[in-house]
């Protein structure tokens, strides 16, 4: 399916669920086909949550980003599109799941749409890139970081200290940035499911 968002049309995959909708914002150089996000989405679907995975960039922009890696760090652009998709979905309760730079876009969107976003989960994210938006995020936010991803852990700790909202940092022992180690991504999915179940109540 295609979703109109901030002047472009974005490819998306929607799965319905009775416990609310979780919108995914993928990370640097990824897309709605990210196997890691799809694994988390499958866990959420099994638990009764709907999921929406979509491409933050158009095909032409993805080609450009492959060459320059510029657009994946354009947080205002990514946040505008994510916010438009949240508005298009018009579903409550709604959660956001962001990975890498997508986590920053999720937090900016949560700050801009406090009545729409009930909870945020970040996987190996860069919440620090959300900048001044961190200070006005009201949605409860879970920051999941791999135990071996020390630089990103430090950035998450600094970002969390600027957030007045309910927040938690959970470190997955032995996991790297991509959570490719056995059982690591399953733990991410379990943590996300529990966080959304706690905070996304209609």
Which SSEs are present, and which pair or pack?
Elements: E1 2-5, E2 8-15, E3 21-25, H1 35-46, E4 50-54, H2 59-68, H3 75-89, E5 94-99, H4 101-112, E6 119-123, E7 141-146, H5 150-160, E8 167-172, H6 184-199
Parallel strand pairs: 3-4, 3-5, 5-6, 6-7, 7-8
Antiparallel strand pairs: 1-2, 2-4
Helix pairs in contact: 1-6, 3-4
Give a written overview of the molecule.
The structure is a single chain. This protein is of the alpha/beta class and 202 residues long. The chain is built from six helices and eight strands. The protein has helices at 35-46, 59-68, 75-89, 101-112, 150-160, 184-199; strands at 2-5, 8-15, 21-25, 50-54, 94-99, 119-123, 141-146, 167-172.
Main beta sheet = 8 strands, mixed
Instruction: Tally the helices.
Output: 6
By helix and strand content, what is the structural category? alpha/beta
Give the strand tally: 8
**Order of strands across the widest beta sheet?**
1-2-4-3-5-6-7-8
How helical, in percent, are the residues?
25-40%
Shape designation: globular
Strand content: 15-25%
Enumerate the spans where pLDDT stays under 50 for 5 or more consecutive residues: none
On the 0-100 scale, what is the average pLDDT? 91
Helix and strand string, N-terminal first? Answer: EEEHEHHEHEEHEH
